């Protein structure tokens, strides 16, 4: 007997995001998310949102295997933005369609020299996939029940992904909302394009979402007072340290802390065609 047509898309964590950083450099573990739904013909489609950097390649392949999948089973890889920590494993998916916003594609052809998450070689990465690269715009439908939200600010062309599930609207936010502190404060942790747009994007996502899947934290629900509840447990094992090393310390950044790229005031004038 044929399986019933799925009425709502589903969302699954492949790799959890983490806000862990160090004073020796960025760990940059972004969330990697699987969306499963059906297109308008009823055909099953699988979308992976963001793919992480190459340091997470083996865990990504293992996470797909736990879902009974291989990279060849993924129809589309949707990049919320082009930063290296979200796109480093694109070459794992050798036959998938790759989606990136038009604005992000325009920007990475000439990134600001201070924009360290967008090194100039990023343009070459996407050039290499141009035969299967689809450029998209906010507001577009990816699948029935899966639409793109304008999330610019952190980067020039960031998009978030709104998924209408059976349990409400889940928004895969990318780095428009990196973590719970960003959602609560309304201030993006790292602004490389425009501070005001970044704040509008946070508000837009919060208004749309019953549950937020941030770029570098666990999925969470948040009420009108700004109180949040994680919906998945934190799991992380540090190796090579036993906790007794002299000089090992732990700290937590203040809520609402923000780094704005030097030279950001030149960004939008350099690209008058972008919002």
Automatic annotation (TrEMBL):
<feature type="domain" description="Metallo-beta-lactamase">
    <location>
        <begin position="29"/>
        <end position="216"/>
    </location>
</feature>
<keyword id="KW-0862">Zinc</keyword>
<keyword id="KW-0378">Hydrolase</keyword>
<dbReference type="InterPro" id="IPR051013">
    <property type="entry name" value="MBL_superfamily_lactonases"/>
</dbReference>
<dbReference type="InterPro" id="IPR036866">
    <property type="entry name" value="RibonucZ/Hydroxyglut_hydro"/>
</dbReference>
<keyword id="KW-0479">Metal-binding</keyword>
<dbReference type="Pfam" id="PF00753">
    <property type="entry name" value="Lactamase_B"/>
</dbReference>
<dbReference type="InterPro" id="IPR001279">
    <property type="entry name" value="Metallo-B-lactamas"/>
</dbReference>
<protein>
    <submittedName>
        <fullName>MBL fold metallo-hydrolase</fullName>
    </submittedName>
</protein>
<comment type="similarity">
    <text>Belongs to the metallo-beta-lactamase superfamily.</text>
</comment>
């Amino acid at each position: 007997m044929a399986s019933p047509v799925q009425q709502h898309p589903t969302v699954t964590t492949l790799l959890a995001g983490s806000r862990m950083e160090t004073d020796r450099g960025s760990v940059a573990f972004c969330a990697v998310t699987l969306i499963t739904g059906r297109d308008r013909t009823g055909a099953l489609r699988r979308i992976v949102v963001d793919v992480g950097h190459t340091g997470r390649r083996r865990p990504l392949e293992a996470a797909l295997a736990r879902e009974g999948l291989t990279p060849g089973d993924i129809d589309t890889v949707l990049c919320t933005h082009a930063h290296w920590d979200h796109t480093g494993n694109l070459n794992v998916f050798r036959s998938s369609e790759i989606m990136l916003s038009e604005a992000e594609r325009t920007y990475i052809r000439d990134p600001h020299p201070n924009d360290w998450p967008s090194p100039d070689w990023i343009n070459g990465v996407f050039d290499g996939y141009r035969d299967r690269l689809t450029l998209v715009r906010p507001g577009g439908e990816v699948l029935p029940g899966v639409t793109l939200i304008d999330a610019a600010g952190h980067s020039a062309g960031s998009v978030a992904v709104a998924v209408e599930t059976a349990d409400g609207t889940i928004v895969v936010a990318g780095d428009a909302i990196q973590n719970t502190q960003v959602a609560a404060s309304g201030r993006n942790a790292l602004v490389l394009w425009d501070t005001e747009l970044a704040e509008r994007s946070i508000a837009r996502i919060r208004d749309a979402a019953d549950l937020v899947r941030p770029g570098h934290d666990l999925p969470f629900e948040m009420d009108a007072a700004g109180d949040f509840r994680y919906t998945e447990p934190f799991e992380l094992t540090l190796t090579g340290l036993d906790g007794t090393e002299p000089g090992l310390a732990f700290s937590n950044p203040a809520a609402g802390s923000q780094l704005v790229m030097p030279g950001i005031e030149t960004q939008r004038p350099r690209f008058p065609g972008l919002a």
